[in-house]
Write a sequence for this structure.
């Protein structure tokens, strides 16, 4: 049975990476903060449950909030502390929901073709 990449949702032919039980193309195993390919050590980001470079994990996310001041779902202003940033977009915590089940997400999620899913709801 062919495997599907958790990042791009395309079929994986040949070699693949299996990290934390999730399968990726080598070029799709990227840091959730800087979007650069992870080639060596990585951590799991506490807020997203996604892989990240150790250096990126320590960067203060507060500095990125200024660039993203409205929620990608509802369009209302983001308040300090009541939101999250991922994939270059800001979300109110209550607005960030799984595309499949509709439940609010805080960790253990991934994006497939630009849509967020709980890892448990996305079956490659």
């Amino acid at each position: 049975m062919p495997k599907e990449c958790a990042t791009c949702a395309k079929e994986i032919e040949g070699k693949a990476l299996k990290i934390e039980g999730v399968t990726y193309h080598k070029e799709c195993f990227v840091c959730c903060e800087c979007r650069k390919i992870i080639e060596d050590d990585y951590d799991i980001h506490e807020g997203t449950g996604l892989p990240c470079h150790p250096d990126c994990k320590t960067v203060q996310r507060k500095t990125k909030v200024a660039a993203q001041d409205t929620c990608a779902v509802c369009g209302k202003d983001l308040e300090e502390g009541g939101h999250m940033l991922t994939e270059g977009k800001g979300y109110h915590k209550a607005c960030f929901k799984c595309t499949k089940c509709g439940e609010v997400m805080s960790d253990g999620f991934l994006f497939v073709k630009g849509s967020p899913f709980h890892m448990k709801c996305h079956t490659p």
